[in-house]
């Protein structure tokens, strides 16, 4: 067992393998290097050539079959049961600023959760939209669980957390918004956002959850993801039970093409610049709130 108390956690699967070398290279260049890479292999045949550049004594390679949600549940429970104090999360098709681990650990001295900014890039890693979250909210701020009710900006590609006190993690196997569910249900305590460190978030066709582009399809998908998210959380929360009902009501109403067209126009009108994960699936009540705020 490694003496490191910090784990960098990620999952590698066939769709990401063409970017995996850049991910590993980014980790080897981190200014703080006393961490293990806890990597779950989801279906890749051989990783030896690419992993040869990463120190063997800092590599924990696991294998797991199942749904994306089930695999992440497995990995998160491994972290909590293996003696690590801190987890840094990253996706294997992304890269990171060289200070990402160091900046996260500095803030985690007084915080339970840290979220860093993201620069959107194209498939080749060229920047398209820098400081995507920071442009909207500012370079640094504290936030609460309520900040994640209507959308998510704490992903398993741009967050880090303390593991002390984390209970056994249980994630429904068919859940898509795993990170949103995980941080909403299992994080408690103080949290901060920072633009001092970056995740370079690669945008391409196979990336299942993109940012910055809104379409009729993405709006409908976001509404359905929200409904599943709220329904899952409503078991323990009256707030999410109410949100679940309102989301279902919105979905039912826009089954009419005429109503959907009017709804979509309002989404385009009221959706803030730099929309976050699942934000474009707006509820009718949000239009009323935005109208009041505009007045």
From TrEMBL:
One of its GO terms (molecular function) is transferase activity. Gene3D superfamilies: Spore Coat Polysaccharide Biosynthesis Protein SpsA, Chain A. Residues 15-132 form the Glycosyltransferase 2-like domain. InterPro entries: Glyco_trans_2-like, Nucleotide-diphossugar_trans. Keywords: Transferase. This is Glycosyltransferase family 2 protein. It comes from Leptospira gomenensis. The lineage of its organism: Bacteria, Pseudomonadati, Spirochaetota, Spirochaetia, Leptospirales.
């Amino acid at each position: 067992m490694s003496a490191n108390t910090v784990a960098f956690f990620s999952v590698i699967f066939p769709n990401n393998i063409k970017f995996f070398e850049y991910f590993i290279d980014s980790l080897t260049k981190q200014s703080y290097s006393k961490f293990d890479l806890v990597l779950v292999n989801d279906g890749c045949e051989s990783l030896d050539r690419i992993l040869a550049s990463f120190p063997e004594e800092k590599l924990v390679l696991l294998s797991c079959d199942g749904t994306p949600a089930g695999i992440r549940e497995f990995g998160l429970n491994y972290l909590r049961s293996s003696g690590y104090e801190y987890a840094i999360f990253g996706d294997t098709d992304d890269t990171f600023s060289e200070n990402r681990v160091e900046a996260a650990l500095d803030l985690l001295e007084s915080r339970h959760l840290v979220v860093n900014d993201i620069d959107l890039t194209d498939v080749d890693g060229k920047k398209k939209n820098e400081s995507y979250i920071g442009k909207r909210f500012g370079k640094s701020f504290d936030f609460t669980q309520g900040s994640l009710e209507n959308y998510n900006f704490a992903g398993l590609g741009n967050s880090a957390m303390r593991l002390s006190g984390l209970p056994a993690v249980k994630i429904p196997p068919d859940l898509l918004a795993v990170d949103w569910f995980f941080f909403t249900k299992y994080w408690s305590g103080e949290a901060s956002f920072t633009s001092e460190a970056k995740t370079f978030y690669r945008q391409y066709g196979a990336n299942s959850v993109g940012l910055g582009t809104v379409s009729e399809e993405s709006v409908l998908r976001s509404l359905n993801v929200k409904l599943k998210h709220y329904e899952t959380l409503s078991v323990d929360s009256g707030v999410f039970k109410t949100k679940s009902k309102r989301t279902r009501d919105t979905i039912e109403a826009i089954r009419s093409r005429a109503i959907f067209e009017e709804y979509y126009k309002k989404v385009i009108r009221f959706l803030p610049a730099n929309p976050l994960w699942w934000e474009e699936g707006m509820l009718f009540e949000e239009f009323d709130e935005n109208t009041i705020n505009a007045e």
